[in-house]
Amino acid sequence: MTAPLRVALLGCGTVGGAVLRLLDEQAADLAARIGRPVQVAGVAVRRPDRHPEVPADLLTTDAVGLVTRDDVDLVVEVIGGIEPARSLILAAVEAGKSVVSANKALLAEDGVALHAAAAKAGVDLYYEASVAGAIPLLRPLRESLAGDQIRRVVGIVNGTTNYILSRMAETGAGFSEALAEATELGYAEADPTADVDGFDAAAKAAILASLSFHTAVTAADVHREGISAVSATDVARAAEIGCTVKLLAICERVPGEEGDTVAVRVHPAMIPTSHPLAAVGGAFNAVFVEAEAAGQLMFYGQGAGGEPTASAVLGDLVAVARNRVAGAAGAGPTAYAELPARPIAETPTRYHVSLDVADVPGVLATVATAFAEHGVSIATVRQDGHGDAATLVIVTHSAPDAALSSTIAALREVPAVRGVTSVLRVEGLS
Ligand SMILES: NC(=O)C1=CN([C@@H]2O[C@H](COP(=O)(O)OP(=O)(O)OC[C@H]3O[C@@H](n4cnc5c(N)ncnc54)[C@H](O)[C@@H]3O)[C@@H](O)[C@H]2O)C=CC1
Ligand SMILES: N[C@@H](CC=O)C(=O)O
Ligand code: NA
Question: Any signal peptide, and if so, which residues (predicted)?
Fold first, then answer.
């Protein structure tokens, strides 16, 4: 075998630590698969004293120096966040090193520029771990489905929130307790509000939409709602109608007379328990892809956690290392179209609304009028209880999101409506 390929590891937390361990445990197999041994050239960390597990001569706090060293061939970035990750990746690429990253926040913000820099330098930029952890998803979109027309991508792409919602539904666990467990298990981001408020899923949705529709979608183009407003009442109401609550990422290419648009949204939604996504529990992720020729495809697996994510990082590492051995670069950036984003206000959706009402004559008609006045058609209504404790549970037909949200605003002004206790979108009901 010839000279080793030398890897610089940036960051040694949940994912970086697992990458380092697997590189060591699987050294012989990786060497056989690549055709050259892989050696760790250095590990950039913030606090070397916190990493007794790493040989001291590998540790450095000088990440820029490490990525530009002549004896480094490949760089793995698992620091996370925008800076210094972006500058480090650009420095590595400009120095001729291929890069593997797990950083969805950065790819969703600056993917076009990073791809352009990698293409200019003739190196690879792979980031399979950034979306849906261990699940092979980005390379299938970039490569296997490059000859098809993808119309829709729908999935659960955040392990932390799926873990929290699963625990709330299955055991009645409280939100904070379930979040603490997800953090302890290594699923959550360094700042877990990125998970809870939907930023992480929105970044992943932007990456999925960009690769699926060959257009530049950033996290800022994604309509984002997290799960912090999802209450035990929402979860219970969902169960009453045979549904479960999931945080969904939905990416659609919408044909229009004046050209296609792209609609990308992340929000909690009720889905029927018979829906395949309803069975996706804990930190697992699942993504449906609908393509014109291929039809429906489903990708399922562990979406978070050190080892599952490290598996995707190592898969990319093998791919870029093989390209390096062959003296080639892999699949480059896609040719970006410029499809406009369709605003959430115009996106058709269905709502489940739960109202506390005074059970007085005419209340049902007043509530129904509020829906009708905003052009929203009601699919089902159920009334529970009597007197001041009466509850109306309404499921609408599909209507533009703006019509539904103005209906809710109008209902809040109706005197007989004591409170709007639950409002969630509904997906997948026939
Ligand atoms: N934990 C997970 O399940 C998954 C994480 N990811 C992504 O992988 C990346 C890493 O995530 P985790 O390992 O979970 O985070 P982490 O917070 O456990 O690890 C990041 C490490 O980078 C270090 N670091 C920060 N700034 C640094 C700098 N300037 N120089 C050197 N080291 C620095 C931190 O001290 C920390 O040890 C993030 O982009 C995250 O979004 C992707 C998929 C799954
Ligand atoms: N925090 C993320 C980690 C993987 O991307 C998640 O919970 O999904
Ligand atoms: Na993945």
Answer: none
Q: Cβ distance 265 to 273 under 8 Å?
A: no
Compute, in angstroms, the gap from residue 321 CA to the centroid of ligand 1: 22
Q: Report CA-CA distances (Å) from 216 to 84, 113, 158, 337, 394.
A: 23, 10, 21, 7, 38
Ligand 1 lined by 135 (C-beta under 6 Å):
no
Residue 81 CA: nearest ligand 1 atom is 39
Nearest-CA residue for ligand 2 atom 4 is 304
Pairwise CA distance, residues 332 & 313, whole Å: 18
Enter the DSSP assignment of 220. Answer: G
Q: Mutual orientation of helices 199-213 and 104-121 as an angle, nearest 10°?
A: 40
CATH code for position 121: 3.40.50.720
**Residue 160 CB less than 6 A away from ligand 2:** yes
14 is in an annotated binding site: yes
Separation of 10 CA from ligand 1 center, angstroms?
9
Q: Enter the ipTM.
A: 0.99
CA distances from 126 to 21, 121, 253, 269, 342 (A): 20, 14, 24, 31, 28
pLDDT in tens, 159-203: 999 999 999 999 888 899 999 999 999 999 999 999 999 999 999
Q: Give the residue numbers spanning the domain of 374.
A: 344-426
Domain shared by 124 and 165, yes or no: no
Dist. CA 17 → ligand 1 center (Å): 10
Residue 336's pLDDT is: 73
Query: Domain of 407: which CATH number?
Result: 3.30.70.260
User: What CATH number does the domain containing 277 carry?
Assistant: 3.30.360.10
Which ligand 2 atom is nearest residue 131's CA? 5
| pLDDT given at position 386 | 78
Please tell me the total count of domains within the chain: 3
Whether 206 maps to a domain, the answer reads yes
Give yes or no: 204 in active site.
yes
**Same domain for 276 and 368:** no
Q: Confirm whether residue 15 is marked as ligand binding.
A: yes
Residue 203 Cβ < 6 Å to ligand 1: no
305 is in an annotated binding site: no
335 domain residue, yes or no: no
Would the annotation count 189 as a binding residue? yes
Cα–Cα dist 91/101, whole Å: 14
